[in-house]
Every structure is written in C-alpha cells, then in structure tokens.
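FAQ

Q: What does a record look like?
A: Structure on top, sequence underneath. For example:
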C-alpha cells in the first residue's frame, strides 16, 4: 500500500501536466476556430461588398449610357433648333426685303396719283408728265413711261432729260432705233444747254445702244443709274 501510494503520488504531476496541455490545446483550437470563423465571415462580407460594388458599377454604367443617349438627343434637338433659327432668320430677312419693295411700290403709286392730280390741274405741266414717266419706269412699266415722256416732249420740245429717259425706256422695250434717236437728240439739247457732263453721258449711252443693243439686258426694269431723275 505504501508503494502504491508513492507510485500514485509520483505520477500525479505528469497527469496534471497532461491535463494542462490538453486544456491549452483545446483553447488554441477554440481560438483557431474563432479566427477561421471570423475570416470566413470577413470573406463573406468582402464578397457581398464586392457584389454590391459590381451592381453599383453596373447601374452607374447603365446611367451613363442613358445620359449619353439623352445628350445625343439634346444635341440633335439643339441642332434642329439652330436650323430652325437660321430658317426663321432667312424668312424674316426675305419678309423685310419684300416689305421694303412693297413700301417702294406703294410710294411710287402715291407719287403717280399726285402727278395725276397735277396734270388734271394743269395739262401743260411738262414736269408732272416727266416725273410720272420716271415713276412708271421705276415700277418697270416702260410703255407707260414712253407715253409720259412723249407728252412732256410735246409740251417742251427741248426737254433733254425726257429725250434721254425715253431713249432708255425704248431700249428696254426693244425699240433700238428709237432709243438711239432719242439719246442723240438728248445729247444735242444737253450740248446746246451747256450741260457737257450730261451730253457726254447721253452720247456714250447712244453709242452703247447702237453697238451693243439694249442697255438693260432685255429687261424692262432698267438700272436706275441710266435715268435722269
């Protein structure tokens, strides 16, 4: 019995050491398992975050694509608006030109009416016939202009400007011979009246009509610079 007790006592520190070692291993295993669990949890969290980021990135790319499409639509609308603005500007300019032309025509018609009243009041008013003829010629009515210039010449047979403008009007309606005769007559009267500049102008135009033809290029709307006002 004494030997047995001694043996048990001798073996006791070894058993305690074994128990302690087993306890430490179990603690280490629990710590390792906890770390593994934490690592797995962290990895799962990272995967979830990555997935969320990928979804957000996909949504962002889709949003950018929509913005790009919208931007292209807006650019197309702006371009169309620009064309519309240019068209509107051109149309406004055309309307402005037409309005100006209409105003000029209305002004000429008013002048003709005033000349009509002057002629009714004084049928021998050569200047009124001349001015009415000039206004008809500005409106492109060369035939009416010839008639009025002729009346002015009947009243005043040395009316050089009336001869000159009638020559231009006759050239416009194709009466080349009559145009040359009128222009030469105008040059003669200008010379006799001492108006050398007008004489040279009528003489040169008569030569031009004689050699080339219609100074208005076969158009009844003659250039106004050819006329005496």
């Amino acid at each position: 019995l004494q030997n047995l007790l001694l043996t048990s006592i001798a073996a006791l520190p070894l058993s305690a050491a074994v128990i302690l070692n087993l306890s430490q291993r179990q603690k280490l295993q629990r710590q390792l398992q906890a770390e593994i669990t934490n690592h797995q949890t962290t990895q799962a969290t990272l995967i979830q975050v990555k997935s969320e980021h990928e979804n957000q990135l996909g949504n962002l790319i889709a949003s950018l694509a929509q913005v790009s499409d919208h931007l292209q639509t807006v650019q197309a609308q702006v371009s169309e608006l620009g064309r519309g603005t240019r068209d509107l500007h051109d149309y406004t300019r055309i309307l402005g030109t037409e309005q100006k032309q209409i105003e000029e025509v209305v002004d000429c018609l008013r002048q003709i009416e005033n000349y009509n009243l002057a002629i009714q009041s004084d049928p021998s008013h050569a200047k009124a016939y001349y001015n009415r003829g000039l206004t008809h010629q500005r409106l492109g009515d060369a035939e009416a202009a010839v008639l009025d210039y002729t009346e002015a010449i009947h009243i005043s047979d040395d009316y050089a400007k009336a001869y000159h403008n009638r020559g231009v009007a006759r050239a416009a309606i194709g009466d080349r011979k009559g145009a040359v005769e009128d222009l030469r007559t105008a040059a003669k009267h200008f010379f006799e009246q001492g108006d050398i500049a007008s004489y040279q102008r009528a003489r040169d135009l008569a030569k031009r009509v004689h050699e080339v033809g219609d100074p208005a290029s076969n158009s009844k709307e003659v250039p106004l610079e050819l006329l005496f006002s």
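Q: Is there anything notable about this one?
A: The longest helix spans residues 2-121.
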